[in-house]
Amino acid sequence: TAKKRETGVATLTANINTASHWDRIWANEGANTWRQYPLTFRKIASRIDQGESVLDVGCGAGVFLDIIRAHCKGVAGLDISPVAVDLLRSKGIDGKVGELPEICFPDKSFDVVVATEIVEHLDDPVGLLKQAVRVARKKVILTVPDNVLGPEEFAEHRQLFTRETLEQLLGQFFDDFEIESFADTFPTLTVTIRLPTLLAICNVKPEEVEP
Q: Within the chain, how many helices (H) and strands (E) appear?
């Protein structure tokens, strides 16, 4: 059964989100993965300004980075799966293998840090946000499922977010953020999913930005 963390978010005790687990998934799905979120990606891309640099944490095969790189100053990805990072690099995009919540990039090295459908997979979302604030100069953008596909229903998901628990989490790190609710629709290997989603645009505090 789920239990409450200090973040007010539900979580489970077992974690299957290992490198070997995701290596098997990416080896099977390849670069043409079904894990594409068309409306989500468009909404995030619209909040990234021309010429900004972007780090996508939990980037997978780099579907989102491939979409935005033409109008960005530079893009890079981080993922737990070496297979996923190889797929990313095959597209000519810089990538590193690493396990979240650690983000193995220098302080203030990207304008924007993006985490799409990633935070719910982590035992330590607070740790991830600490790292994202450290690395981002301007913004942190993230999405999570809105009170669906939670731990009771989907073994990969460690957290079950609502707007209220997401606000509580973000409020620990940001004075200026906004949350949008919408539903994205996309086909999986077997069915078409309508996924209620929370999108958060978080502005890094000015005092945390280096001159």
A: 6, 9
pLDDT by residue (tens digit) across 187-201?
666 677 788 999 999
Number of domains in the chain: 1
At residue 105, what is the residue type?
A: F
Token pair listed for 131: 């790292």
Q: pLDDT, tens digit, for every residue of 122-167?
A: 999 999 999 999 999 999 999 999 986 544 446 678 888 999 999 9
Q: Which of 68, 90, 88 is closest to 77 using CA atoms?
A: 88
**Ramachandran assignment for 209, one of left (phi > 0), alpha (psi -120 to 50 degrees), beta (any other):** beta
**Residue of 57, 117, 112 lying closest to 84 (CA atoms):** 57
Domain that holds residue 45: 3-208
Directed axis angle between helix 125-135 and helix 163-170, to 10°? 50
Backbone conformation region of residue 154, classed left if phi is above 0, alpha if psi is from -120 to 50, else beta: beta
Distance, CA of 45 to CA of 47 (rounded, Å): 5
Q: Say which residue the tokens 């005092």 belong to.
A: 207
**CATH number of residue 173's parent domain:** 3.40.50.150
pTM of the model: 0.86
Q: Which helix (H) or strand (E) holds 79?
A: strand 74-79
